[in-house]
Structure formats: structure tokens, C-alpha cells
């Protein structure tokens, strides 16, 4: 009997969504299963960077850095509304990595990854620059280099949406309860019913080994679960550059402009031993990040200044590294099955910058085992939903939306364009043509029209899906506004 789907993907993070998009575009009938919301776990808890990983060079991970650097401008080109370039200020700190070593690292960073449009690194006199004014007087020399920023959760959602537009079946809040081979195909029991598939991808992230166990599979692969925590504080500086800081313990952290009025600070690296259902920043991690800020900035902060924290567990391939920050950010595939058995491909590790390349590699590995998969990798040249405009065209799109909706304040226009791209001008898109069609205003420019769109087109079901993953308006919403949104969404679901 023919299975319901050619390929079932378990896990709605960036790897699962990326594989679903690639495989659907190559002809497979794809089912994506996620037990919660898309990007609810690790994929919405990154440092929001599309980067090669400058610090990985000192761990000799040249191949990983090259792969990630080659992806920066590819991802920028297919999603310029949610990914854009950012310049990073790297102050030199006496007694830590010497200036010649930093300069050498930045030279390699500029030249091993095929940089084309991004500007190169350069030295900077912090004592005579706006970027140095907010730092303590001891920091007078440094460098500026290029990387990229990403709205990580929206990147997941847009990959899933593009997969759905091409025919994939995306099912959120659909927990896999049992997984077994039967009759030459996979039988998958879920909270939403039973499905069959010719092949399965295990993209469960930190739960990859747990899912293998439930499928009755063994693996020699070992994982290291590392928790990365971040804090968000009121804006520490007014310019649009970010900072890359070194600390005396050998670690690094970033301070990044965030959502107009805030600064994002992170990340930590701590081995995570608790349940995956309880991942949060510890008091020690919050204090550590505050102390890092206070090492560099004139303005001092305490944990009382923190307006939000978030944490994610990175499923890293265990490579014997002593310290969590030294563990590889690379990825591996393991394929089980053959000789008449339906295949199971498990994904171990990975990072958000290399997701598209990982997805293409995973589908290539499956192609000889899944007859429906044809063709070659294609996602490098295909825009994600809303991304079909020039990389430099964000301002033009804001102007076009303003001409259509002059009543909307500029910060709202900017958020809508950075969230939805060209879809803001679609007749059936997330933004109404007139104020009269907006529906209820829940606050801060979030109208019922956009909420309906996210529920209908982006699988949002709860307020947190919208306030913390489809947008970051949770930083601004109060309890009353959140309660009203929750009531409205419950009514719409009913």
C-alpha cells in the first residue's frame, strides 16, 4: 500500500523546516510534525546572527567557518526583510588575545568565505569614534567587521510556509507518540491521528536521541546539550552597530541593537542537565552577562535592569571538548534502514547559519532512498515568502506602504516590512488597505487583520506564538493587552 507521504519530518525547528522546504521543492509529498509551535525551542533562542563564527577559527574549525560564511550572503539574498548586514565592533583588550591575532583572524574571516557585498574588516580608533564613546576609556583600539542579523523564529516560519505553499502538510501541536516500521513503511502515531510515510527525518534537535529511542533505534552518536542564555536590557547605545567582546575567562559575548529600544546581550555556554521542558536562564547566568556588560560599557547595569531573558538548548555533537564553548557547531547525518526497510535519517547538531546547506545535504542523502525526490538543490536562488525584492529595497518598501497607509506610524511601518516583506502590499496579505479594515488594535500596531493572517497562514494559535515568535511585541505588551489578544484568538479558534 502506498504511504500517505513520501517523507515525514519530525521537528519544526530550522532544520526540519528547511528540509521540508527543500524536499517539497524536489517533488516529495512531505509531512512536517511539531509537538509545539514552530521554532518554539532552540531555533527561536539563538543570538539572532547569520555569521561564520569568528571565534571558531581559534578552534581550527575552518571548514565550518567557510561553510557558514559562504551562506551569509545567500541567506541575505533570499530573505532581505528578516536578514540584513550588521557591522560589529571588536575592541582590543590588553592582556587577552593580542591585536595581531585579532587582525589575522579578521583577515581569514574576510577571505575564506567568498565575501562579495559585505564590507571588509578595518581598524578603528575607539577614542575618536561614536562607537567608543559608550565604552570605558581603557578601550581605545579595535576593529570593525561584517556579519548578519536574522529574525530566527521568522526564518523558521517562512521556510515552513514556503514548504506549505509548495504542497507540504505542516502540522503543529502534533506530538509523535509512537514510531515504528511496518509493511515496508513508517507507521507514525500522533496526537492528531495516524500517518504513514516512506521515510522519516529525525530533526528533533535536543530530543534527537529520545526520538531514536522511541523508534527502537540505536546510535553510536553522542550529543552534548549546551544551554545558551541571553538577556535584553534597555538600549545601551544609540548607533546601529553591534559589539563583540572578549572576557578574561576566554569566552566572548555580543551586545546587539534589538527591537529599536533595547540591547540584546549573550550568550552563555552551560551544559544542560535538566528537562528540555524547563530551559531558562539561571540567576548566575544573568549576573555573568551583566558583569560582562559592566566590564566594557560606561553605563553599568544590574539584574534589575533586565526586561527579558531567554534560553535555548543547543544539541551539539559530542567531540570530547572540555569546555562547552569549544564543542563543535558542525553537524552530522546518520541514516538507518535499507534492504527493504524504510529509511530514517537523523540530524545531529547544526547552527542556524548553515541550515539551508544542511537541508540540501540531508535531501541529497535521502534522494537515492526516496524515489519521489528528484532534481538538485534549488533553495539558494529562491526567495522566501516576502523576500522577493532587492536587498537594498527595504526603504522603498516602507515608502510604498506609507503611501498606501499614511495613518500608520513609521515604527509600525518598519516592523511590518521587516516582518512580512513584500506581503505587506498584497491584497490578501497581513496589512489591510484601509484603517476601517484593520479590526481591533491590540496595541503597538498589532491589528486583528495581522493576527488573523498569522493564525491562518503561519500556524499561530496562542498569544506567545505571535508576541514572542512571529513578532517580539511581547517586549511591549502589558497584561491587559495580552489578555485581550488571548480572548480574541480563542474566539477565532472556536
Automatic annotation (TrEMBL):
Its EC number is 1.1.5.3. Its cofactor is FAD. It catalyses: a quinone + sn-glycerol 3-phosphate = dihydroxyacetone phosphate + a quinol. It comes from the Bacteria. Residues 6-356 form the FAD dependent oxidoreductase domain. SUPFAM superfamilies: FAD/NAD(P)-binding domain (SSF51905). GO terms for molecular function: glycerol-3-phosphate dehydrogenase (quinone) activity. Keywords: FAD, Flavoprotein, Oxidoreductase, Plasmid. Pfam families: DAO. The keyword GTP-binding does not apply. Belongs to the FAD-dependent glycerol-3-phosphate dehydrogenase family. NCBIfam families: PRK12266.1 (NF008899), PRK13369.1 (NF009906). This is Glycerol-3-phosphate dehydrogenase. It comes from Novosphingobium humi.
